[in-house]
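During the reporting period the student researcher (J.K.) took over the structure-prediction task from the postdoctoral fellow and processed the backlog of single-chain submissions. One of the processed entries is reproduced below for the supervisory committee.
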Amino acid sequence: MFSVYADDKLFYSPRLLDERYAITEPQATLELNKAGSFTFNLPSINPMYSSLKKLKTIITIREDDEVLWKGRVLNDAKDFYNTKAVTCEGELAFLNDIQYEPHDYSKKGIKMGEYFKKLIEHYASECSEERMIKLGNVRGAFTDVLIYPKTTDYTNVWNLISGNLIGASTGKVGKDEVDLSDYDRYLYIRREKGVSYIDFVDDIGKASSQIIEFGKNLLDLSEYVDASNVYTQIIPLGKADSKGNRVDIKLVNGGKNYLQSDSAIALFGKIQKSVIWEDVTNRNTLKANGQRMLNKAVEMAIKITIRAFDLHRINVNTDKIDFGDKVHVVSLPHEISSDFLCSKIVFTLDNLENTEYTFGLDFETMSGSFASYKRTYQYKMESALEIGNQNAQDLLDAMTRMDSLQTQVDGSICSWFYPGVPTAENYPAVEWTTPEAKHAHIGDLYYDKSTGIGYRWTENSGGYYWDVIEDKQVQQALQDASRAQSTADGKVRCFSAQPYPPYEVGDLWVQGGSGDILCCQHDRESGSYVASDWVRASKYTDDTKAIEAGKTATDYIKDGAGGIQVGPNGSSNVTMTDEGLVFNGIRNLVPLWENADPTSGIAAGTVICSDGRLASYAAIAIGCQEYYTSPFDSASTDGGLIQYTIVMLNGKEARCSYIWDYPRARKVTANKKGITFGPGGFYQTKKLPGLPLYPGSNNEYGAKFNSHNQCCVPVVIYGFL
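J.K. obtained the following structure tokens:
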């Protein structure tokens, strides 16, 4: 439950029934390394309408007792009805208020951590108390990186931090220049006991146990991929000797001075980078350092924005998704199964289903990504095979028309599916390093997924190249196969004869007009053909299967009295009629239980329906009435109305509610062995901080539960299958 305060005075809470204390379209944004914002519309009837002062009024959003967002009013604009559209900026914007004197570290440099401490300590010494931000945690490898800031004028603290620390691209470790994009840096406001601390660290948050999953709590998703900082081959170098020769990894790396990611080269081509570790003399240490940096470098910078529902809000036992947490996101249709850092949250305070989470800045390695593709392969294969059978046959027919298969040594054609124009100098042809290898691939097909153009690997007078395919049938077959292909590496191999290793998951074996289309379900690098590696991808229903299916249908569907009966052996669980479906096992109109004496209430700990009558039900509807009155109750007869609550028979505690002049409630726990009632009671009001008493009354806002057996008394229960 969210509430909003202006200088500690409450001016919005969904708990308030007074319409004056309402705002519309309240939306708060939390974002790493940025101030964040809060926007809302303020009606003229709100008591705080004239009290919000630009740059002065401190706005606080609280979720229960926790401060979710803090900042100040930046500006407002009135519409025709005098409603103000208010924009607020987050707490980090306070750093704009204090100037820092000119300074010059251009010669000797200063460590990033030391520079940050100087700036924040100066701010804390100059700012007002209500805008106090104290120095917090400063940690991470980046803190020892030397930077060389220089200013000739006074500059505000925020600009110095954003320009020289967050926005810095290079620095030095020792004498060596380093790329700061390799260093995680997070700026974050942390609050403890009412005090705001600013942290500058390389790791924040926790690993959330809650999973955001397609079909469950994932509502919408968009994805952005940036490969601008990717390199696929690294040359690690260590300390130099007296002659300037640096330690390399040849002696511990099979004579090669580089490390590379084959899978990344397949996607991006060969992109080299040399990195120096000035103090490293051990070759094994140097190789390990290089491998770690390479793994990080081949990470695709994936930024995902999703709309999701935090399951913690309906089940407190589910781990809450907090700003800065690492969260596992699973969406098989989008080929995503990875851990991401929650770098931004946009809360819509009056509609939590519209909350947007942005995940970025922390990414899975390329090898990990391919592993996740392998994990989701079965799902992808099932969807692809719906259209893949015909596509495979079409592709094979098209290739046969070009006489491709007859030229292949192994009786197979490889079809490659990647974005970009293929050449002899990029993947896959760059790996065919001998004339024999190049010749063996004559007839291979390449489909440029970015342009939709197909190519064929061709030989002419001893030269090999990719030739644009003019045959429209082949182009169409490649396009269809591209949509249906389900392998992780962007390649499909079609065999016309019994395949021999190597073959991979997703490869196809087309046995001809009288045979089947088989799909490889198991990688095999060497050895002999194994029949169990291949499963039928076509002709799923032969005559035997059809007979079995027909028999199953007649076992479950039969003509009967009053309509068609559906159920095991026609047992009439469901009857289909012209009027619709009749579910014969549902007895919603017959009460499972009725209270013989509701006026006396019901005591906490009372157990009912423990005689097995709930065994065939999945949920119940509990009807309650109210028998406790007080001087605060109206003279109406609303307490005699029955109000229903649906409770699942899952053994989890639930709450029956009864709304009258003020709320009544009773906890209940139900399973198939019985129903246990907790104490009933009513909610007595209490005053909330900063809110005046309701005019003309001694009542106060808020809630305090008071037990009373005559509150929210169960009187009747119905069951649902």
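The committee noted the following: The radius of gyration is 34 Å.
J.K. will present the remaining backlog at the next meeting.
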